[in-house]
Design brief:
Radius of gyration: 16 Å
Distance between the termini: 25 Å
Order of helices and strands: EHEHHHEEEE
Strand order of the largest sheet: 2-1-3-4
Largest sheet: 4 strands, mixed
Number of helices: 4
CATH topology of the domain at 1-34 and 94-143: Glutaredoxin
Number of strands: 6
Strand content: 5-15%
CATH class of the domain at 1-34 and 94-143: Alpha Beta
Structural class: alpha+beta
CATH superfamily of the domain at 1-34 and 94-143: Glutaredoxin
Shape: elongated
Helix content: 25-40%
CATH architecture of the domain at 1-34 and 94-143: 3-Layer(aba) Sandwich
């Protein structure tokens, strides 16, 4: 079985869809509900580095706290942004998935398909009704 971890928020539809796609590949991942068990600074820094994206890409800019803390200020350093994310884990964008094939912020949820080691085992439709995987386990065009 593949070693897969998802930093998950069960209240987020994208996160729920991503988790369901992982399970549709026949794998039960390690699920870390990061709002209850926030990552350490070291872990968060490593996750960001492994995604290959800038830190700001992993901050939820639509959260109320983002505006309150004026995190859109370009003068803020990565250390200051990390401090805010660690103090307010809701600011961490989700879901972040770690697999043997890579680490990715899975927005949209089907981005996880690019880093899953095992193929999809059946059809999958997102919560909103959008088909992603057909009955043969193949990605639907446009997904």
């Amino acid at each position: 079985m593949a070693d897969i971890t998802i930093y998950h928020n069960p209240q987020c539809g994208t996160s729920r869809n991503t988790l369901a796609l992982i399970r549709n590949s026949g794998v039960e991942p390690e699920v870390i509900e990061y709002l209850q068990t926030p990552p350490s600074r070291e872990t968060l820094v490593a996750l960001v580095a492994r995604t290959g994206q800038p830190l700001r890409a992993l901050i939820r800019s639509k959260e109320k706290r983002y505006a309150e803390l004026q995190l859109d200020n370009p003068a803020l350093t990565d250390d200051q942004l990390l401090d805010a994310m660690l103090a307010h884990p809701l600011l961490i964008n989700r879901p972040i998935v770690v697999t043997p094939l890579g680490t990715r912020l899975c927005r949209p949820s089907e981005a996880v398909l690019d880093i899953l080691p095992a193929p999809q085992q059946g059809a999958f439709t997102k919560e909103d009704g959008e088909p992603v995987i057909n009955a043969k386990g193949e990605r639907v065009a446009g997904a």
